[in-house]
Amino acid sequence: MFWPFRDLHYLCTQKNNEKDMALDKVGKYEFLAEPFHCDFSQRLFMGHLGNHMLNAADFHSTDRGFGMGWLLSVNRAWVLSRLAIEMDEMPRMYTRFNVETWVESAMRFFTNRSFRVVDVDGKVYGYGRSIWAMIDTETRQPCNLMDIRDGDLMNWVEKDKKNPMETLSRVKMDDKAEIVRTIDTYYNDVDINGHINSVKYIEHVLDLWPIDWYRKHHVRRFDIAYVAECHQGDRLTFYREQTADNEYCIRICKDGEQQQIEVVRSKVVFE
User: Fold this and answer.
1) Which site from 53, 141, 155, 203 is most exposed, i.e. has the minimal number of CB atoms within 10 Å?
2) How far apart are CA 4 and CA 35, in angstroms?
């Protein structure tokens, strides 16, 4: 008998209920710092670490019944709203490491998810924080998280595991920011939601500094807030402002019909 995708996925979910009940609220997923994902210092690129965090988030949510595979079947999708990564050290080439992730809190339209990056022996590399929203893939409008599986997401909130990094805050900029680059967007910039990939913005921002800068500095903390959607073909303009020693804020805008539209704000702290 042929089963529509959403019905088949529902049956599989029902059959795995006993397994789901045994899952911990904190997920732990192993990754490898592959050589072609590392920079000249043989350390993992920040963009690839961000990608591993987003993969861990997807693995965690999928295992617990609210992942992208099922959501897309009901015209819903997770959208990353904000992300911050704070690292003492980046994993070295060929190192196996784990990304732990858990849902810190959930509200009507947003959920807060944390990350911890550790090696196989428990050494902590750093942490991450993120805020996610859910949208209707047809209307592109926000959805009430409590409408999904009768609010089952609340059963996975982990309140006891602590994340020591500072909470997310707004990236503040003024009119002193200068244009430093303008780029076009192409096929490889676009993700499954049809807009510019969240990690691509991280890569584009960190490309604003030359390789010689990174020979003397490393990224201590990276914050990014996604303000509006961009699509393939949009032309992006990058504005940069130094706000403290080794601290820079970046605004990314796309061309609108009458004026530029802000799509991303970011802050990078170097050591």
Assistant:
1) 141
2) 41
Distance set, CA 152 to CA 59, 61, 64 (Å): 17, 11, 9
Strands (E), 52-109: 76-87, 96-106
What pLDDT does residue 53 have? Answer: 98
pTM of the model as a whole: 0.89
- Residue intervals of the chain classified under CATH 3.10.129.10 are 5-156, 178-270
Assigned architecture for domain 5-156: Roll (3.10)
Helices and strands counted in the chain (H then E): 6, 10
What is the residue type of 177? A
CA-based torsion, 224, 227, 231, 237: positive or negative: negative
Could you give the 3-state DSSP secondary structure of residue 212? helix
Token reading at 267: 């802050």
pLDDT tens readout for residues 96-105: 999 999 999 9
Other CB atoms within a 10 A radius of the CB of residue 88 amount to 13
Please give the Cα distance from 120 to 215 (Å, whole number): 28
- CATH (residue range 178-270): 3.10.129.10
Please give the full DSSP string across 98-129, using - where no structure is assigned. Answer: EEEEEEEEE-SSEEEEEEEEEETT--EEEEEE
